[in-house]
Amino acid sequence: MRRAGCPLNELPIAPQISIPGNGGVFYSSSEFSCRAPYEPSPPDSPGGCDSPPGEYSYANGPPYYGQPPQTRARIGSMVNSTTVYGPPAAPRSPISAGSSTMYLPYWGPGARSPAALPHFASSVASETFGAGAELGGSLFAEHLLPLKSNGTIVRMILPEERDAMEMQDLIVPSVSPSSSTGDLTLDCFTNEQRYLGSYWMWIHPLFPVVHKPSFKMQTVSPLLRSTMLALGAHMMQNPTDMGNARIIHECVQKVLKKRAINGWDTFRVCDMQAIVLHEVFATYRSRRPPLQFSKNFDLIYRYLAHDLEAINQELARPLYDSRSHTRNGYEDLAGDFPPRLEAKYKQRLLLACYVIDQQHAMLFGRQRTDCLSSSMSGLTGLDLPFTRSQAYWDATPDHHPELWAQKLAAGLTPYDQVYGALSAVPNMTAPSDWRHDAFRSMLMLTNLTDPDNDLEACGIYLDDTTDPSAVLFAVEKTPRMRLAYHTFMLCRHTPIRDLLAVAGESWVLGEKLSSQAQHISAQLSARDWAMGPASTHSSLDLANDDDDEQQPAESAVQRAIHHALRILELHHKHPKTGLLFQEWSLYLAAIVLWARAYISDHPSRNPQLPLEPMRPSPHDLELSLLALISAGSAPATAVVVTRAAAQNVVLWAKAQIEKVDVPHNCGLTNCALDVLGKLAGRGGEEGWFA
């Protein structure tokens, strides 16, 4: 007699789950205890223990997805919340932002290995889902993905099985520079090792969304590994490795598109890390810079902006910040470690999204998203949590108490919000002995140019007309951060989109203005900015101008010129600072000086200038550049930029960018060289400005 199947809505709370291993063999979750949603998480064991026999295995090591999330509500959790911050408890599709490993079989006490911690797949969204009464079929839809053949679902697979299938599409090219240069020293390391080392050196300080102490190359998500290697390869700055970086990036892009087509999107922590780092590459290093962010990035940004763990300032501090929660200084590293680490992941991912969003608009003249401002509380950049230092984030657990003791001994007060860190800057009269790291420094500088931040209303008075600015006393003391500061301040005093449209002849980094009227409007705006009051004053009058109505316009263009000269000076001394937009900064400085010279130094005032001036040598270009920088460094002097000097700057900047450019590889450098080439050839012709 045929036995009827049990309906899904009558399944027990902790149903048996069969997971295919290699060769199609199944093991049942009944062999290992499975927790109900109301049961507490098992204790962690620092050493871990062996996984059960017949586990789902991979060629590169044990699975990285860790244990099921804690389902008991914790501080900052939305389990008991009914506000719009929490996702609904109703059934959701596999594309939801919840945990993709929810209710996987528990492998016994201490089964989670340290290598799995950075990719712990739990989330507050999954806790909310688990707290709901409707389990049934939605339980499986939460973490199983459809495997289709000819449009028909053959079976359901786990995200980890999908990851294993994607590995063949994410192979790192084996071609290395040693093949063409004969440098045998490179043969000692694989491309993966070299690219990972480059990632830790150049990318990780600026976007520390990966926990380095617990990172394991053998067990990391294949997609996350590829995004890290692509960024590291591009920072090697040689044609072979940069070509490999482009190949890896395009492979990642194809995998993400395939996920969307097949309904395979998941948003575990490791997925969010990969998508954010992929967006970093796409924004600054891809062959075709995007006009707007990808759908996945936008979704993650909005999700994190509504996640209490990501925006809760209290969770930005370690537990032993409060002595009432101390257990030999290791409370943050004991049984509560995975959820605490996950909260810190989400905070850093949210901050990284904010930085990328602001820089995308500020540097390239794009539209800012409303992901942050559309949150329930109407967040601004000043409201974001101010994470712990990079030294703490990158240190092993046994060094955390020592680092914290050093900060306490120095009398430093930890800031919970970005506002607190910025509000302390105006009172600084000397460089700090404890400067902020690169990530926190970039967060502070980015907030200075966010138009949604009313700094003066918040009591933050930061006037960059003083040199050095007080903010430079607080941020990281490195060329990359000073270059970032001057670049952001240049953008603050310049109508970037209008200037890019004028220099690009109605093109703004791959974006064509929709009408001739928009182009004319950009020309008029850029002309008014570049002209300022200097068109009716001599250079000596500018220094003593008391006309209040003229001063703001003069200040804008002169401050932009000041920062442009500082950018040129920094690049001359430090050709590689590690900033992902360094060459773009150089390009912006060049077109600012060109626009100013074009408007203020009309050829009719210099009738003896030759129509076709001779191209100076590289040495002459450098001498002209240094002379202009020196003139701009004189105190209380409004520097005069002639067309000849601006022409030399354009040629010098073009030569510098060509040193690191690979044709058809990086859209930013390709665009900059294209425009600078036109300005060098016919930048003095009539018709650039209306």
Q: Could you explain how this protein is built, in words?
A:
This protein has helices at 124-131, 136-141, 159-166, 178-181, 191-203, 222-234, 239-262, 269-284, 295-305, 308-311, 337-364, 390-394, 400-409, 418-423, 438-448, 479-492, 496-503, 516-531, 539-543, 551-573, 582-600, 618-633, 643-658, 667-682; strands at 18-20, 26-28, 145-149, 152-157, 507-508, 511-512. Strand 1 and strand 2 form a beta hairpin. The chain has 24 helices and six strands. Among the domains are: 1-143, no CATH class; 479-682, no CATH class. Residues 11-141, 180-186, 319-337 and 534-553 have low confidence and may be disordered. GO terms for molecular function: DNA binding; zinc ion binding. Residues 196-373 form the Xylanolytic transcriptional activator regulatory domain. One of its GO terms (biological process) is DNA-templated transcription. This is Xylanolytic transcriptional activator regulatory domain-containing protein.
Specify Rg, calculated over alpha carbons.
28 Å
Order of strands, main sheet, comes to 1-2
Head-to-tail CA distance between termini: 88 Å
Percentage of β-strand residues: under 5%
Number of strands: 6
Order of helices and strands: EEHHEEHHHHHHHHHHHHHHHEEHHHHHHH
The major beta sheet can be summarized as:
2 strands, antiparallel
Mean pLDDT equals 75
SS-derived structural category? mainly alpha
What proportion of the residues is helical, as a percent range?
40-55%
Principal-axes shape call: globular
Low-confidence stretches at least 5 residues in length (pLDDT < 50)?
11-141, 180-186, 319-337, 534-553
Total DSSP helices: 24
